[in-house]
UniProtKB/TrEMBL annotation:
It is found in: Cell envelope. This is Leucine-rich repeat-containing N-terminal plant-type domain-containing protein. It comes from Ficus carica. Keywords: Leucine-rich repeat, Repeat, Signal. SUPFAM superfamilies: L domain-like. Residues 30-69 form the Leucine-rich repeat-containing N-terminal plant-type domain.
Length: 337
């Protein structure tokens, strides 16, 4: 940066001025943002992570985990990435008093408890809502659908319960939804085939979701979809189809899926396919040998039969990819056909 003598003079003068007359009028921090941040700090009972949030300093310059926009000087980011943070208790409602907030990203806060507050709907510019490895409880609220600018919602590793609101599919810009490792129940909403966002990832694993995969989900070409470790049943073949060209990772292990794999047409873009521990029948289709980028495959613990097709990546996986099926045979299994 290039500091002109005038600027240096101004800064020196400001510092001198500020040290005598507090609060300093020349600070960048917007007074409403400062007030909200201090209320949030107090609401959390003055945790150590916010020890730099000192009312006598400029929140745009010195406050760890809070960042201002360079032009507007409004708070746009609140973030704690490192583990062992000490946020405790529920999220204070004053979180809604940061109207320019773009990113709320709090990670590894085991003592952060309570529900997702309604006041969050006032954050109309919010794009990234990420509160992971914490202990948020209560439902995934329907009102999140009021935050029309959301790009990413992640609540992985929390204590959230109840059904997944179908309204989330109305978020026009959403590109990623991770609700994995909670205690969510009920079905995957029908509307989830209607997400508009391109290059979409959906992580719902490690919950208690039940019911069938809605047929409408087949309309969406998910880049990444992880539904593993739930109680989902029935046909999952709608997630595939050679017309899809975005689908890279499909992880459906440890559910109750029951469908005929022989009839599935796999997208050529597939890289990871994990179907282990289901009740899938039929045989492995020859089409899978044409999926050139397949790097991980696991169809173990199902009810598959017949010869493992020869070609592509299929003989490159070890026997555990295929073991514990009804009557699969051929390399890499020792059982010949
Ligand atoms: C969480 O709370 C418990 C009990 O009050 C405390 O022992 C622990 O240190 C807290 N964890 C963190 C990361 O602050
Ligand atoms: C949630 O709280 C429980 C009990 O205090 C703790 O064992 C667990 O690690 C916490 N979860 C996370 C993801 O931090
Ligand atoms: C998790 O949620 C249940 C209620 O669903 C509650 O009883 C429990 O205390 C919560 N655990 C933590 C660590 O907040
Ligand atoms: C996928 O297919 C669509 C049309 O079906 C096409 O517009 C798009 O460019 C394709 N994308 C890739 C990555 O091939
Ligand atoms: C496939 O899944 C089974 C069951 O979880 C596991 O034992 C095996 O190691 C896995 N194999 C591969 C290659 O991922």
């Amino acid at each position: 940066m290039d500091y002109s003598p005038k600027l240096v003079y101004f800064i020196c003068f400001s510092l001198l001025f500020c040290s005598f007359f507090n609060p300093c009028l020349s600070e960048l921090c917007h007074p409403q943002d400062k007030k909200a941040l201090l209320q949030i700090k107090e609401g959390f009972n003055n945790p150590h992570v916010f020890s730099t949030w000192d009312p006598t300093t400029d929140c745009c310059l010195h406050w760890d985990g809070a960042h201002c926009d360079e032009k507007t000087h409004r708070i746009v980011t609140l973030e704690i990435y490192f583990g062992g943070g000490d946020l405790s208790g529920p999220i204070p409602p004053e979180i809604g008093d940061l109207p320019y907030l773009d990113v709320l990203w709090w990670h590894k806060q085991p003592n952060l408890t309570g529900p997702i507050p309604r006041s969050i709907t006032r954050l109309q510019r919010l794009r990234f809502l990420v509160i992971t490895w914490a202990n948020l409880s209560g439902p995934i609220p329907d009102f999140l659908a009021e935050l029309k600018n959301l790009d990413t919602i992640e609540f992985s590793f929390n204590n959230l319960t109840g059904p997944i609101p179908s309204s989330l599919s109305t978020l026009p810009k959403l590109r990623g939804l991770s609700l994995d490792r909670n205690k969510l129940t009920g079905p995957i909403p029908d509307s989830f085939g209607e997400f508009q966002g391109f290059d979409f990832y959906l992580a719902l694993s490690h919950n208690q979701l039940s019911g069938k995969i809605p047929a409408l989900l087949g309309k969406k070409d998910f880049t990444y979809v992880d539904l593993s470790r739930n109680r989902l049943e029935g046909d999952a073949s709608v997630l595939f189809g050679s017309d899809k060209n975005m689908t890279q990772q499909v992880i459906l292990s440890r559910n109750l899926f029951e469908f005929d794999l022989s009839k599935v047409d796999f997208p050529k873009s597939l890289i990871v396919l994990d179907l282990n521990h289901n009740k899938i029948t039929g045989s492995i289709p020859v089409g899978l040998t044409a999926v050139n980028n397949l790097q991980h495959l696991n169809v173990s613990y199902n009810r598959l039969c017949g010869k493992i097709p020869v070609g592509g990546a299929l003989q490159g996986f070890d026997f555990t990819t295929y073991f514990h099926n009804r009557c699969l045979c051929g390399a890499p299994l020792v059982k010949s056909c």
